[in-house]
Fold this protein.
Amino acid sequence: MDRAQKLVTDMLAGHRLSLARLISKVENRDDDLAAIMKLLYPHSGKAQVWGVTGPPGAGKSTLVDRMAQHLRAQGKKVAIVAVDPSSPFTGGAILGDRIRMQQHSGDTGVYIRSLGTRGKHGGLSHATKEVVLVLDAAGFDVVLVETAGVGQTELDVLRLAQSVLVIVVPESGDSIQVMKAGLMEIADVFAVNKSDRPEADKMVRELVTMVGMSDHTAESWMIPVHKTEALRNLGVDEVIKSIEAHQQYLTKSGQRDVKAREFLKNEVADILAERLHHTLKGAFETTSGQELLDQLVKREIDPYKAADVISGV
Amino acid sequence: MDRAQKLVTDMLAGHRLSLARLISKVENRDDDLAAIMKLLYPHSGKAQVWGVTGPPGAGKSTLVDRMAQHLRAQGKKVAIVAVDPSSPFTGGAILGDRIRMQQHSGDTGVYIRSLGTRGKHGGLSHATKEVVLVLDAAGFDVVLVETAGVGQTELDVLRLAQSVLVIVVPESGDSIQVMKAGLMEIADVFAVNKSDRPEADKMVRELVTMVGMSDHTAESWMIPVHKTEALRNLGVDEVIKSIEAHQQYLTKSGQRDVKAREFLKNEVADILAERLHHTLKGAFETTSGQELLDQLVKREIDPYKAADVISGV
């Protein structure tokens, strides 16, 4: 049995260390990756993937941890993937994992992993997608993907979730931002966290009004709006019930299949993009590749022409 | 003369509206884009491209506007490209442009344009690169590329600059963040802005120490650290002198050519990635593409195998 096969077999048997190693291999774009994903893939496709996002300081991590506790109480195995594309300025991901794991210490039904910008261009959302596939194959019932905002990479990451919870805070003006932000397009459930603050009810009312104004038919999903206080464990059950209802809606409406196909299209696209990246790296290292660059620098040819040459058009 | 040719000719003749239209075509990935870039490319390669980044609230826009004023006083034509990949939460880019333009009103030697997340996956840094090429061809002497942080997209964007100014603020602890962030790797010049705040000198000392500790030889560039107060126009000339010195260093050391080649490699790679994206979109819309997706959903084949099928391996 080769290395990749052994790791996957051990992971499927529940070895936590093998799981961690496989995830590291995905993060580092290991040479064995294609072999590993081929072995894992038939075991995937069972997990529910929930995305969670919101502005910095909205209390995402606290709410996600509470949600994990509630899901554990239902007997479900839960994985949390915290994605922070801007980690250069924030840092501390690994330390954060340790602190968060302590709250679930001794519980093998919870797994937490942070992913940062270690990868290259476009690499983080692809790596996250494959980490979710690994956790899915490992038998986690729910994979919670938590992102630290809604930049481009974060939106890419959220696309891999079946249901997306958007967390906001009650400060006035936020609802206008939410509207601008096109968050209505990505939210399946809203939580107004820190709802002990004075403006909470106003925020809830505004969100409910916005949801009501958006295009929808009798069959379409109406985004529920919940008040939560993650620190005091209030409203968390209601949020989970709404996401579970959304999961049922996905199945009934046929949207689950649509989303699965979209996810797989993107995965194939990412694989091909990564291969292209490797091909190109090789192409420019040859003598003719260097000559092509010389011509580009001298403005004798243009980049679109060079692209034709490299792809043999 | 066809449409693309006419726009480019008008833009090269100095028509401001043609320039704005060309930039919009780049942003919207217009069908004429390849034709446009082929016409423009021979006119590019003369501008200096300066990147400016730093954490939110560091006063980037104010300092960039001051820098533009100083460069104008030298008789240079200046373009500012403000890139904000997280615009969903921040918004207001267009309004911002208008307000900023007013400060330079009536001066055709200054051009300001904001770019947001309108594009798709990986699209923003590619579009920014081509917008810079357009401005370069249009005859701007310096293109200032301002980003709102150092997430993945922002780092991609900064790679297209020849010189990078990193702006920080004096608050204690920031210097450790700077180190963690790997900002030393991207900074060519540091500015400690809002340097009237109490911790400014401490911050400068820490940055100078960090620069001194980093690997360098007698020939390598030593990152200068400046104190600035953009609001009061203090320290701006010194920052510009340091960037100009860095530009001279790039030429003398041969690094300018290395960077130009890297930039062009990435541009060709982006073009091919964009073509791949279009090819794939088509591939999945065919009957055999849909069957491939069916097999993927049923877990009969895995995404790596599907990638082989599509690329004809």
Notes: Confidence is low (pLDDT under 50) at residues 88-92 of chain A.
